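Human:
Class, as today's exercise, you are to examine the entry below, and be ready to discuss the fold:
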Amino acid sequence: MTRKQKRLAVIAGGMSFILAAVLLVMFAFSQSVAYFYMPADLARTPVAPETRIRLGGLVGAGSVVRGAGSTVEFSVTDGSANAVKVRYTGILPDLFREGQGVVTEGMFAAGSNIFTADTVLAKHDETYMPKEVADKLKQQGLWQEGQGQGQSQDPGQAKALVAPISATAVNPDEVLAHPALEGARPERM
């Protein structure tokens, strides 16, 4: 082999190695991708049974039904007439409740219109909502920034709830004496 042929063989070997690595990565990603849907999206374009997806929206009011053991059924809605019935077996997040944002991950069984979830994620405070859910609800005019459920309409009120704490030693009785924390005094042992 000439010098030029050796160089071309090394370049071809390197390119084939890179191509194989890219193909393996693409195959791995295609196996683990779960596309995000809202109930209105599923009404327009149904997904094939046994296809793993993420379903997001709000837990429908009055839809939570606790079954035997840790099985729970509830509806996920996006504020339109579309709602998807979800069945989940497991422990729900502590902040899961009706009217709150939720993202479930799972699939529709063949011949069933009930979404079987294996993962349920609930919003973790008054202002958090998964980005995909918030974007879809904003597009439909059902959710506005800063208008989360349970959030104070008076921004000054939220600031008043925070007791000032200095960098020096703090007496817990002084902090708990703040009017917003009245009745939150822990029992002493």
